[in-house]
Every structure is written in structure tokens, then in C-alpha cells.
What we know:
By secondary structure, the protein is of the alpha+beta class. The chain has helices spanning 6-21, 27-41, 66-78, 82-89, 108-114, 147-165, 172-200, 204-217, 222-231, 236-252; strands at 46-52, 58-63, 93-95, 119-127, 130-139. Helix content is 58%, strand content 14%. Helix 1 (6-21) runs antiparallel to helix 2, helix 1 runs parallel beside helix 6 and helix 2 runs antiparallel to helix 6 (147-165). It is globular and about 55 Å long. Residues 169-230 form the ANTAR domain. InterPro entries: ANTAR, CheY-like_superfamily, GAF, GAF-like_dom_sf, GAF_ANTAR, WH-like_DNA-bd_sf.
Amino acid sequence: MSETPREARVLNAVVSLVDTLLDDFDTVELLTDLTEHCALLLDVEAAGLLLADTRQHLHLMAATSERSQELELFQIQADEGPCLECYAHGQIVVVSDLSLERQRWPLFVPAATDAGYVSVHAVPMRAGGSVLGALGLFGTHSGDLDEADLLVARTLAHIASVTILQDHAPNEATVGTQLRAALNSRVVVEQAKGYLRERFDISVEDAFAMLRQHARVHGQHLTQTAQILISDSDARPALLADLEILVRQRNRD
């Protein structure tokens, strides 16, 4: 059987994401799906998404792996890197060979190289003349993104912006409200991941995968499942029992 043409895979991904936007969706879950589509559709290994709050401080919203998540967080902590530069200037950043950029990003380049990445790119999330954040793309081999890849990346970054704003026209008031709601959702999910990591002695990545799996199976939002785990003492025992079964299944596998 021949492989599905790239154009068809891109269109299928866009349709899937837009269909989700037209339904009752969870912001963190959808943005995580979006970063995973980036890694599948573009000539990159991993992707992550940083979102700015109303004070223009960037926060992690989604990433394809623990390794890319840690690198996105490192950019914020080190206050340098492609996503920060992309957000600050509102322009696409394309770096085909990280080894040539040590003077530009003296802290970020060694961290990215140690993580196994050789090239990095960043695409701004825009809405109503404002930059909401940046989509980071990390490659394990050198090379630029071609025009087709850049178009796909811009399209996915635009969908990410629509995801944040949902059905509200982008102005100062609505953007601030939606940014706070999205960032609060991510905080709840991060708390739940940390809780599961300590409870079951598993990796953060496994904890997130289990939360997503449980939410999908039970028709819940990812944030809703995380909120039960963190703050609903009545429903938490049943949820933990279900998650413990998932842990055992993963250990057997």
C-alpha cells in the first residue's frame, strides 16, 4: 500500500484540529495534539509551544516529549533561545545548524546539543496584531525548513492561536482572559502530573500519557481529569484506582 501523500496528511491534520475546535474541547489536550502533528508532518523531531501571559512572561503549554519540554523550560529560565527571540520580535526564526549560534545563545546551544538537537526553528503565534507565544521546532539533523514546511508550521501556529482565543474576537480584554484560562489549565495538568509521578514512581511523561488515556476513555477533558486528581477528594479514590490499573498494564508491557 502506498504512503498517503504529504498534502493529504497535512489536510487531514488540519481538519482533525478544526473539527475539535468546533466541539467541546480541552485546550491543553488540543495543543498537545497540535505539537504532535508538527513532529509528524514537518522535518523535525519534536515540538513545543510557549504561551505568554498578560505580563509578557512565557509559559510552557504543550510539548511532544519530556526532552523537548525541558528544553522549552530551559529557554525561559535562561532567558534566551529561538522561541524567546521569535516572541520578542514576532518573526520566524530558522536555525539550520545550532553549532554556529553559540555566540548568539551561549546557554541554550549547549543545552539543545546535549539533548540531541542540531537545528531549531520557531514560529510566532499571532492574533489581532499581537504575538501570543511561539511554536518551537527541534530537529536532530541540520537543515532549513523548506517553504512547504514553513507554511504548515504557520498554519498550525495560527490554529494554536485560535485555540486560545476560541470564539472571542482578539482585543486586549478577550486576549487577556483567554490567556489566563489557558495558562491556568496547564498549571492544573502540571500539578496532576507531579502528583502521579510521586504516587506511582513513574516518569512525568508516563503520568501525562496516563492522564490523557483516562480522559479519552471516559469522555472527559484532560483538565477535568487533572482537576479531580488535585482537588476532588470524593472522586479522587476511584480515579486513582483506574490509574493504578493503567500503571500495572504499562509495567507488564
